[in-house]
Amino acid sequence: MSTFVLLLATGLGLGALYFLVASGLSLIYGLMGVLNFAHGAFLAAGAYAAWWAASGGLPGASGSGWGFVLATVFGVAVGAVVGAGVELLLIRPLYRRHIEQVLVTVGLGLVGVALLRGIWGADPLPFPRPAIASGVTTIGGAAIPNDRFVLLVAAIAVLLGLLALLRFTRIGLIIRAGVENRAMVEALGIDVRRTFTLVFAIGGAVAALGGVLGSVYLGSVSPGQGTSLLIFAFIVVVIGGLGSLTGSAVAAVVVGLVQQLANYYTASGVGDLSVVLLLALVLLVRPGGLTGRAAA
């Protein structure tokens, strides 16, 4: 029983990590129709920025407690700046040119990994763990690492925060209206381009948060970390339904649990295969994903 509880907790924590990465993808695609293959670069940039800050690069950010919080905030800010910069310099001229968007973002993702390897090397670097994530909590006889709970709390907070932003704020109203009818919103004197840049900044910030907490979960940070997590994030987004935050949240939980349970009860590596089979099954039954239309 304790083993099953541990597997459930680990699967939920992994699903929360996948959602943190996938939420930015879902947000950017759902609102702007941009498949951002450079999302892993946002994640890695935020993770390395937090690692640099927590390793003594930023005064007051080293150590656990509030120092780690400051390092995380710094990493999230770097992710937001990178996301906004990518939209301003590369994506803005390419709206409605989807093939060019894919090529540019794929290339940017590859360049980001190469740049990080050139600066910090290809080997994983130990990531400092805050005190809150270093202990364990016993539930049902299972000693569950606290980093699982940190991931869950962060994922829930991000989901509720993004939904509230889009549904109950003026900025969210402008974003949704700009997607539906950009010309009309601009005729009202509102600069839609700024709101689109804001969407990319939010996506980059959430990805960076996923990178920081994912590094805590994995215990290290590496240049290819964003790419590996991005694969599962895309699977989560497709299963949940492109552009649906709630669908991505449900899919992330399912993917995390399936992966962990399959790896333990069958053989190592079968979990990844099970996730791919789950993706194929969902696409066959509901091509639009769990929350999409069957004819999507």
TrEMBL record:
UniProt subcellular location: Cell membrane
Top-level taxon: Bacteria
Keyword Methyltransferase: no
Keyword annotations of the record: Amino-acid transport, Cell membrane, Membrane, Transmembrane, Transmembrane helix, Transport
Main location: membrane
Transmembrane segments: 6-27, 34-54, 66-90, 102-120, 149-175, 196-218, 230-257, 264-285
Pfam families: BPD_transp_2 (PF02653)
Membrane topology designation: Multi-pass membrane protein
Entry's family note: Belongs to the binding-protein-dependent transport system permease family. LivHM subfamily.
Entry-linked PANTHER family: ABC TRANSPORTER ATP-BINDING PROTEIN (PTHR11795:SF442), BRANCHED-CHAIN AMINO ACID TRANSPORT SYSTEM PERMEASE PROTEIN LIVH (PTHR11795)
Name of protein: Branched-chain amino acid ABC transporter permease
